[in-house]
Amino acid sequence: MSAHLQHNAAWEASPLAFLSRQFIEGVPKIPKGVTLSGKTALITGSNVGLGFECARQLLALHLSHLIIAVRNQTRGDSAAQKLRSEFPEAKIEVSLVDMASYKSIQSFVKWCETLPQLDIAILNAGLSRPQFERSDESKHEMTCQINYLSTALLAILLLPVLKKKRGTSEPAHLALVGSDMSYWAHWTGTSDSIWDTADDPSSWSSNGAYQISKLLLIMFVGKLSEYVSPDEVIVNFPNPGACRGTEFGTDGKRSKIEQFWMMIAKPIVGRTVSTGARSYVDAVAVKGKESHASFVGEGKIKPYPPIMYEPVGKALQETAWNDLMKELSFAKPLEILKGST
Known about the structure:
This is Short-chain dehydrogenase reductase family. By secondary structure, the chain is an alpha/beta fold.
């Protein structure tokens, strides 16, 4: 488990380790014999990019039922049609969920409760905003809203569904897509409230907000995993690495550093979309109970970001959890989670 890998954390957060992950380690191929026949999976943000490619790879492993969870019906239908033409034997359907809306997330989970089976959930939808923007609903900064708050709500609500609807005695899988950019997050706030920092436009940057959102998400994974047995649901945090050929981060006007990364560096160091998506597949089709509450990448269990082993990081994790429970109190998250233990 990642909790036991503090000795490797500083290395994984180094530039050399990033290059090693991208050029040397890579992501191993899925072992022969792995099959998802008879299983049902949902993937958020799966009409393009890594989510779409992950869907392809799951279907190639004979997944029986795929749910494409997206916010746009037309784009979802287009993605589904492409996949149906390649995998005509699978059941593929589209369901709508707007990750910017708590009400939409709750409605989506209500729909999931009607499914006869659900074995795998991959929460892939995410964004990186070029300018500071607030959610219309919660008034929190948008990157943190989508990547952290909304993803956390969806994960909590899906836990009992996965427990109840898994089709076999094997544990279900819940993967919250991470990023090794969480290794480089710099937290400058206090232990009073995470929103003092996360919602402050004066100290905001696009990269910084993305890094913080993914740091908060892996901290959430660590806490969430305390409320569910890996015998029932395995919760992990797969890292696709830097990937070229996706639409991620291409919207809006970016800083010169970000433009350099997107236009020059990323095409050189970036993995293919196929390689990045394979990290998702590894996390839900290959990894077992040993990956519970863990950062998964390159086919291995990786350490948490270094800050999570330090007193300041442990204090931040507790503060973030308490703030999250208050933010999501309308959904009664603790009641749901205590019912999962």
